């Protein structure tokens, strides 16, 4: 699949050698519709002399005397690769295990059935039922023929009206219809024989005559091509004429003005200008407010004033870090018609009209089939295989980091079902192309479907998918039963062998139990080389060989438009039935090696795909994120192929989720981040990488600098934290000292003539010559078209229309070697190349490194969501998810990836945004203190200010009003809703007082003492209603992360009661201080309301552990307060009576 020759001839596409003697065959050109135009030698003289037509191919059309044949040797080797399981690894020989392929279930079924009457509903030609006498069952008197399924749909969805005459059926149950049909079958048959004779004659006249299977159909070929036979070719008398009216010559291509692929849509000035003005006003108000707070201390409670002023200073600093990167939000739009015109339309450089788009390698990662159901992963794979992108330019790689046979066989089932699902999607333009999501749509599936056989095809595919789900869900039991059976057979064979040896030795027959490792068996009666169900040495989760299996072989370069299998259950004639390449991979794992979790798996995919397909672009998806928009790949490619697209490292798509409760109680949609923050970053240097739904440029993942990189102004805090400017000095081999520096595509890696110096690559990328040779090819193929003088670093049009090389065993064997556990040793994988190691959030670090080298990224928000996935709606699962993100941010802050150490190639506001990524968890320390301040104020009878004067209230009003106005304008330019913004504010406080605080503690202990703390579940309560779609929302799983917010709730509730009691029974009530404390307490409780509601479970059934912890915390805080500030006689006298004493 590698194309090594693309960089020859000075960066031009490779040319085929011309023979010395003039060829004696008839030349022809293939047009965009697949037709062939004959040429004479005189016609070719003028065109061959041009540069664009120096390399031509002789096309012989599909006529009855010419049938296509493949070379037998190449076909046999290709078949050997696609039907073999390759394994290998450290100190082991790479082996190819030939596997016997079984025919699919769809192919085993007979496609023909007995001829009978068909349903008259438009779009359905299913057979109608007959009664016991052999007569058609007609539910309506109008004799409208209808099948059982359409009758059921008409009764349920159509109000019980006949689709023919629109009258209501007399019988609404099918059993009643059958009984009535048997009663008057004789009379209906007599009436039909007299009154419907012409219908019967017309029905008999509609018998179709088809050519025998495998025979060339002359009439069909002439009809579909609208051609006539010429001298060895076909000509077009209708629509392909020249200026003289002579048929056989296409029209000349007209020069069209150059059009961009993308447009930047700036926010309206009526929205963004007031937004920026409000930011400035609030910033000034905060500065004056903090100055006033510092000058006016509360002498009565200096400790309360001190804590509040420290927290407010940090909140102001955190708000500035969060707000400044939002000053330049942008929107973007793509033009898919221009993309098709430039890359898939016949031009002088691409006369055949083949796709000139670059290849895309799609990575899907999974690790545990128990936590990540294989049916979900299979649906994701099916949605990828069915995308609207050139089939020969697409390859899908599944990384199974657990090495489970269950995932392997589920992917095999998905590859088999794809033979029906993918052509069905292409034929009827299905959206979405995830079968599970498509069949569970709430809307009408027949809307905008015009083909007559759609209803029949959909029902058949639905039946096939139901069987596919049954097979996939039954795989665990099938694998277990198969392994038990083979294990029993092995034990019997071992015992028989032992008995024979004892008989041959003349010993008494005293058999000892034979101990044989209980292996996991594949369907071809061989041991599974990956992880076994019963773990054993070399077959455990962290100890198994590397595995690569080509599930679907690389497709041919020509579309199989008229291909129709003999036993195919559906008619896919005229539909491209090719499938993209699908590869299953499980990297080698051995004890004693650090495999670096997901980042290590992704880097293994990068190396294996570079050898097998080498797509210049890489799209990574989580196993639960499927393609919701089949044109999303094309939308992302518009940015990469546009002018200046060679400086883009990745295109990030927003994450959209399904299965979220309608109220979005825990802000799982995260729309404020994906629609506000990410759009704002798109106006700077680009959005951050969020781990999935991202289209990468392969050369950027390799650690290269972008072309034409710029140096920006000095970075943040350069005046107070001066940095030594890094000199661009390298040693003799071009190796730089700092790992954050990139592998420059400039002078240090190039020879004097401008070519890359590949001699320096082995110490960076490893010793695989295949991998090293693929790097310049990927760089060349990823360039935009040089179709305009302003396009720099472009490639000539038509360079990627050449068919890729076929896969052979040596290529797959090399791919096995680069996924071994030892390959990354003494290389720069994980430090400068690929996904970066050393952080839980490897995605943010990887994106930061690219931006730090000067690359840019863009945010692609499509009109129809590009991808959709799932998110945890349970409170505990959501908190643990936020804990992992916050832990990664703390690790970033204490590492060299801190934005304070960024290079001058990163813009200032982009650096502030990355600085906020590492700092935001530390806000939890001040936030939890501030949440206790209202309670402390109510307990002590004091407030953060001396008195609630007009100045304080004015500042507070200005800050609050400007915050609300900023929120309204953000909602305006981002398109989110007010409820979503409020849910985000609520969960910011919930996460800040729970998961963020735990992440800071964990990060500090790891940095200072080297101690790692993991927060795990301790108890679990099951949901009540398993049929409820959102039953998981009401499941309460106790975790230690719930202690801080639960404590805050209890203390504030107790403080409100104490404050009211103190004020009511005091001689001189201090209502102003009470109102201030109560207002802020209700502010805290209002933000924590979703948390409290989550603890209640369904119908208010709160677990006992919540009450126990609440009581213990309340008693502890009360005793602590009494010990610190014991009640005095003077305090009791102020309560207005000796009969009452406040505790």
TrEMBL record:
Cellular compartment(s): Golgi apparatus membrane
UniProt binding sites for Mn(2+): 598, 622
TM annotation in the entry: 269-290, 302-321, 913-936, 948-969, 1046-1065, 1071-1092, 1104-1124
UniProt keywords, alphabetically: Cell wall biogenesis/degradation, Glycosyltransferase, Golgi apparatus, Membrane, Transferase, Transmembrane, Transmembrane helix
Active site per UniProt: 401, 843
MF annotations from Gene Ontology: cellulose synthase (UDP-forming) activity; mannan synthase activity
GO CC annotations, alphabetized: Golgi membrane
Chain intervals for the UniProt region annotation (Disordered): 1-22
Binding site for UDP-alpha-D-glucose: 365, 371-372, 401, 597
Family (UniProt): Belongs to the glycosyltransferase 2 family. Plant cellulose synthase-like D subfamily.
Name of this chain's protein: Cellulose synthase-like protein D3
Lineage: Eukaryota, Viridiplantae, Streptophyta, Embryophyta, Tracheophyta
């Amino acid at each position: 699949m590698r194309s090594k020759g693309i960089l020859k001839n000075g960066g031009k596409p490779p040319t085929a050698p011309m023979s010395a003697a003039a060829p004696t065959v008839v030349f022809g050109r293939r047009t965009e519709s697949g037709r062939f135009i004959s040429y004479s030698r005189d016609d070719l003289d003028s065109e061959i002399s041009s540069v664009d037509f120096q390399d031509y191919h002789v096309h012989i059309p599909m006529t009855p005397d010419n049938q296509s044949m493949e070379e037998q040797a190449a076909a046999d080797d290709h078949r050997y690769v696609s039907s073999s399981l390759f394994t290998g690894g450290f100190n082991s020989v790479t082996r190819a295990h030939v596997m016997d392929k079984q025919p699919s279930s769809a192919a085993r079924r007979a496609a023909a059935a007995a001829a009978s009457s068909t349903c008259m509903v438009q779009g359905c030609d299913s057979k109608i039922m007959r009664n016991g006498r052999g007569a058609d069952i007609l539910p309506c008197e109008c004799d409208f023929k209808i099948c059982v399924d359409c009758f059921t749909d008409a009764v349920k969805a159509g109000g019980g009206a006949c689709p023919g005459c629109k009258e209501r059926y007399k019988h609404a149950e099918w059993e009643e219809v059958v009984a009535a049909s048997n009663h008057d079958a004789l009379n209906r048959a007599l009436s039909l024989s007299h009154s419907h004779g012409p219908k019967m004659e017309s029905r008999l006249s509609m018998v179709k005559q088809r050519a025998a299977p495998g025979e060339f159909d002359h009439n069909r070929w002439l009809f579909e091509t609208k051609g006539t036979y010429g001298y060895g070719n076909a000509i077009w008398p209708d629509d392909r004429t020249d200026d003289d009216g002579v048929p056989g010559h296409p029209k000349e291509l007209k020069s069209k003005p150059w059009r961009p692929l993308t447009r930047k849509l700036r926010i309206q000035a009526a929205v963004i200008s007031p937004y920026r003005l409000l930011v400035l006003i609030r910033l000034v108000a905060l500065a004056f407010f903090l100055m006033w707070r510092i000058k006016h201390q509360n002498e009565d409670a200096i400790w309360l004033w001190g804590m509040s002023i420290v927290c407010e200073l940090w909140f102001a600093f955190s708000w500035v870090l969060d707000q400044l990167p939002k000053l330049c939000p942008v929107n973007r739009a793509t033009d898919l018609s221009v993309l098709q015109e430039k890359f898939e339309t016949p031009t002088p450089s691409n006369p055949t009209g083949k796709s000139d788009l670059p290849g895309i390698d799609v990575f899907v990662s999974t690790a545990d089939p128990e936590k990540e159901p294989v049916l979900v992963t299979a649906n994701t794979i099916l949605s990828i295989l069915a995308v609207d992108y050139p089939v020969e330019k697409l390859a899908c790689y599944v990384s199974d980091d657990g090495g489970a046979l269950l995932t392997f066989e589920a992917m095999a089932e998905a590859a088999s079902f794809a033979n029906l699902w993918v052509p069905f999607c292409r034929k009827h333009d299905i959206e979405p192309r995830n079968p599970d999501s498509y069949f569970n749509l709430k809307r009408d599936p027949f809307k905008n479907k015009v083909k007559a056989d759609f209803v029949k095809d959909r029902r058949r595919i639905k039946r096939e998918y139901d069987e596919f789900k049954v097979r996939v869900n039954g795989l665990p039991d099938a694998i277990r039963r198969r392994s038990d059976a083979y294990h029993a057979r092995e034990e019997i064979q071992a015992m028989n062998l032992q008995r024979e040896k004892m008989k041959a030795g003349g010993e008494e027959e005293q058999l000892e139990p034979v101990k044989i490792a209980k292996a996991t068996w594949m369907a071809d009666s061989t041991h599974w080389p990956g992880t076994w169900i019963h773990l054993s040495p070399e077959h455990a989760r962290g100890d198994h060989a590397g595995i690569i299996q080509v599930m679907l072989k690389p497709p041919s370069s020509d579309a199989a438009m008229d291909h129709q299998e003999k036993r195919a259950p559906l008619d896919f004639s005229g539909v491209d039935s090719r499938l993209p390449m699908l590869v299953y991979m499980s990297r080698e794992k051995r004890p004693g090696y650090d495999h670096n979790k997901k980042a290590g798996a992704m880097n293994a995919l990068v190396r294996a795909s570079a050898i097998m397909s080498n797509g210049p672009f890489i799209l990574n998806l989580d196993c639960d994120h499927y393609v919701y928009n089949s044109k999303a790949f094309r939308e992302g490619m518009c940015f990469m192929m546009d002018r200046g697209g060679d400086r883009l490292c990745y295109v990030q798509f927003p994450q959209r989720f399904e299965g979220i409760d309608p109220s979005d109680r825990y802000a799982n949609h995260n729309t404020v981040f994906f629609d506000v923050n990410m759009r704002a970053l798109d106006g700077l240097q680009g959005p951050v990488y969020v781990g999935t739904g991202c289209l990468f440029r392969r050369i950027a993942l390799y650690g290269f600098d972008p072309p034409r990189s710029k140096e920006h102004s000095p970075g943040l805090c350069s005046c107070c934290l001066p940095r030594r400017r890094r000199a661009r000095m390298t040693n003799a081999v071009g190796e730089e000292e700092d790992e954050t520096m990139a592998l420059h595509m400039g002078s240090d890696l190039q020879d004097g003539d401008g070519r890359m110096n590949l001699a320096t690559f082995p110490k960076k990328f490893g010793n695989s010559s295949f991998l090293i040779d693929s790097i310049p090819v990927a760089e060349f193929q990823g360039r935009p078209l040089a179709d305009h003088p302003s396009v720099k670093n472009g490639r000539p049009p038509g360079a990627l229309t050449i068919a890729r090389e076929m896969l052979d065993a040596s290529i797959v064997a090399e791919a096995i070697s680069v996924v071994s556990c030892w390959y990354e040793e003494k290389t720069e994988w994980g430090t400068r190349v690929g996904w970066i190691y050393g952080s839980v959030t490897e995605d943010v670090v990887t994106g930061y490194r690219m931006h730090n080298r000067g690359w840019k990224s863009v945010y692609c928000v499509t009109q129809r969501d590009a991808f959709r996935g799932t998110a945890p709606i349970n409170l505990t699962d959501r908190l643990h998810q936020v804990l992992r993100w916050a832990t990664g941010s703390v690790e970033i802050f204490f590492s060299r990836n801190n934005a304070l150490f960024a290079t001058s190639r990163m813009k200032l506001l982009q650096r502030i945004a990355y600085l906020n990524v590492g700092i935001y968890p530390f806000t939890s320390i001040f936030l939890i203190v501030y949440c206790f301040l209202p309670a402390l104020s109510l307990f002590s009878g004091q407030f953060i200010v001396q008195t609630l004067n007009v100045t304080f209230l004015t500042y507070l009003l200005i800050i609050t009003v400007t915050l609300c106005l900023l929120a309204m304008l953000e909602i305006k330019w981002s398109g989110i809703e007010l409820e979503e913004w409020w849910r985000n504010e609520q969960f910011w406080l919930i996460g800040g007082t729970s998961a963020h605080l735990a992440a800071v503690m964990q990060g500090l202990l790891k940095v200072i003492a080297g101690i790692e703390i993991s927060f795990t579940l301790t108890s679990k309560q099951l949901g009540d209603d398993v049929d409820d779609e959102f039953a998981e929302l009401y499941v309460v799983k106790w975790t230690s992360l719930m202690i801080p917010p639960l404590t805050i709730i209890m203390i504030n509730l107790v403080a409100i009661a104490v404050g009211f009691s103190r004020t009511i029974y005091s001689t001189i009530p201090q209502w102003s201080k009470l109102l201030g404390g109560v207002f802020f307490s209700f502010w805290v409780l209002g933000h924590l309301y979703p948390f409290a509601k989550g603890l209640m479970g369904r119908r208010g059934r709160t677990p006992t552990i919540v009450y126990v912890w609440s009581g213990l915390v309340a008693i502890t805080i009360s005793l602590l307060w009494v010990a610190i500030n014991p009640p005095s006689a003077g305090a009791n006298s102020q309560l207005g009576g000796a009969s009452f004493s406040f505790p």
